[in-house]
Amino acid sequence: AQTLLSGGMAERNRARLLVLYGSQTGTAQDLAHTLRRRAQSLNLQAAAYALDDLDAEMLPALARSASAVVWIVATAGAGEAPSNMQRGWKALRRRRLAADLFEGCRMAVLGLGDTTYEKFNAAARRLGRRLEQLGAAALEGVARLTLANEQAAEGVYGTFEGWAKDVLRVVAARHATPEMTEEELQQSARQEALSLSLAFAGAGAESDVGGFYEKPYGDLTPFGNEPALGTVAVNRRITADDWIQETRHIEIALPPGNWDFHGGDVAVVFPENSAEIVRRFGQLLLDSAGFPPEVETREKRLAMVISVAESDAQTAPPEWPTMKMQLPRCCSLADFAKRFLDLAGTPTRSFFERLWPWAENEDEKDKLKELASPEGYDLLLDYCIRERRSHLDVLEEFRSVRPPLMALLKLVPTIIPREFSLAGGAPCSADVNSAHLCVGVVRQKTPYGRTHVGLCSGYLASSPPGSSVRLFIRASQMRLPELANGSLHDRSPAHVPPLLCVGPGTGIAPMRALLRERLAMVEKFQEGDGTESPFAKKHFALIFGCRKRTMDFYYQEEWADVLEKHSSWFYMPEPAFSRDTERKVYVTDRILEHSTRQLIWEFLGLRRGSLYISGTSKGMPQDVAASVKQVAIDTGGMSAEEATAWLKRLEKEGRYIVEAW
Ligand SMILES: Cc1cc2nc3c(=O)[nH]c(=O)nc-3n(C[C@H](O)[C@H](O)[C@H](O)COP(=O)(O)OP(=O)(O)OC[C@H]3O[C@@H](n4cnc5c(N)ncnc54)[C@H](O)[C@@H]3O)c2cc1C
Ligand SMILES: Cc1cc2nc3c(=O)[nH]c(=O)nc-3n(C[C@H](O)[C@H](O)[C@H](O)COP(=O)(O)O)c2cc1C
């Protein structure tokens, strides 16, 4: 029988590099495949998998059959593991695992993180510790744990380059592998891009996009691996027309289904490219070889329905699992361009690494090679990253790069969905079967005066009522406190635990959803049998901040209404308007004001309440936490050390939750 260790003698002598990754927004995935390709260009056998693409039970045997196992792991959320490694990570944490599970395996971990988040590289650190406990040895010459930081001069890429070089030097040296020549490199890169096999299906062929959505995107969506097809019901600007920032309130009606989500949960939205992007892609197809002669116009080419299968051209050990592709199996090229290819996304270095082998013109090839090299980082920064040039822009600009269709579909990465905290819509509130979003539209001027509009926020902003939106919904920890661990019904507390919400800017979204859910509960209770209300005491405080009262004070009338009708349990101080007065006022200032301070201490210190913080600024949650600590010191009489320990305890008990993006 074939085992993971079987294979011919020659094959067995080739080093085998196993690359495992956990990635939320695609960077770790991109780097994992970059490392895999570079290993293959050194004639090593290599494969890269998201941890959850593998069966957890087979991991130890797979790891033992590799010469080296390297992990590239991002940190998501507030110090959490990315969603495509959570299942595997849970399995690795099991207490009863043998302490020698990975004995004999050589491993190294590269963490991707950002020091502006409180828990820098938390997921990689935890993983590194656990692998050591399970007996993994270090890969000699490479640190067990290397931490890359988005804030470093070259982002995470600088650290990756040095680390990858070390890994490949060590792995290749153990097995003396000759490096490929430039022609061989070009050949191997082309072959990899051609590992898709395409067939033109008839015009009437049914589309099958299965495979594309097979990821743990949203556990609360009642349609298995399929996203919900929602319909935009409301799309309204909620910043003043003459204000620089456009923010929109969007309500998406959800299709009927067994929905069970709550305020605080998160929508995972799949954006679509604009008709203009699709048209430009169609133009590119006119230069693509391989179409039947009668399919000669842009429209006809875009209308072609193709079926896609991946033939495994990669040089992984044959007994290792095949790497999953994440492409639809059958759809029109127009749909490919609209829904699946990240044509408007900004390329990373690896795009150029894969692109240069297709350049026919030597000058273009040289420029692409420079963009692909670590030395060309400044050029990449100027030409691409700062300018937000897109994959499509680059393909249009480099006219000698005209790979055949199947390579084109593989070269452009696929669209990654964007998350939005629900701003309302939980089934138990009045907003039955709908998802409310509060979307800040990303619009920025680049150094050369181009305008970049964010893919998903731009897509949502320009989706009028009646248009369709594909989305999943996933659970969040940020639920009403009594729902976070079991339901109110089960526990019937005399009084619900208090909640302090701090949500400046679009960070107001989850707070609005939580408040709407609470309002629905209060109203339901009022219709009840007259027993004392668990909501009678003051228990819900909302602290909001924005720039100007007349410009971006979101949902102003709603708060006024709740304050008027429910002042017995709801508290909202004057928002912090940072640009209305000479001295800038922020939410942290509001927290420290006398009356608010008293209430915060009562909520969090005396009544075991919860603190939820949400918003766009990565530094804001830390500032808010510092102010709350100050309250514990000034009002609660704690020492600085006690206040720090107290906040840590709150966090451990699930009473201090941050959602920052
Ligand atoms: C838990 C959570 C809740 C959020 N809630 C809200 C909310 O309530 N309201 C709100 O306005 N925003 C919210 N966001 C931010 C939102 O997800 C988007 O980042 C934001 O709308 C900008 O996305 P965009 O596509 O418009 O912009 P883009 O410029 O296209 O992308 C913005 C960011 O996405 C990443 N990115 C860019 N291209 C890609 C790509 N090809 N693949 C993967 N990632 C890429 C980059 O980090 C980039 O900075 C939340 C984010 C998270 C994680
Ligand atoms: C919503 C969000 C939360 C994040 N949380 C953390 C964090 O808690 N700690 C950290 O070090 N980095 C954090 N990061 C930074 C990412 O880990 C970093 O950008 C990484 O390169 C992303 O890799 P990925 O694209 O593979 O997910 C966060 C990034 C985002 C967008």
From TrEMBL:
It holds the Pfam family FAD_binding_1. Residues 17-168 form the Flavodoxin-like domain. Its cofactor is FAD; FMN. GO terms for cellular component: cytosol. Keywords: FAD, Flavoprotein, FMN, NADP, Oxidoreductase. The keyword Oxidoreductase applies. InterPro entries: CysJ-like_FAD-binding, FAD-bd_FR_type, Flavdoxin-like, Flavodoxin/NO_synth, Flavoprot_Pyr_Nucl_cyt_Rdtase, Flavoprotein-like_sf, FNR_nucleotide-bd, NADPH_Cyt_P450_Rdtase_alpha. GO terms for molecular function: flavin adenine dinucleotide binding; FMN binding; oxidoreductase activity. Residues 225-481 form the FAD-binding FR-type domain. This is NADPH-dependent diflavin oxidoreductase 1. It comes from Pinguiococcus pyrenoidosus.
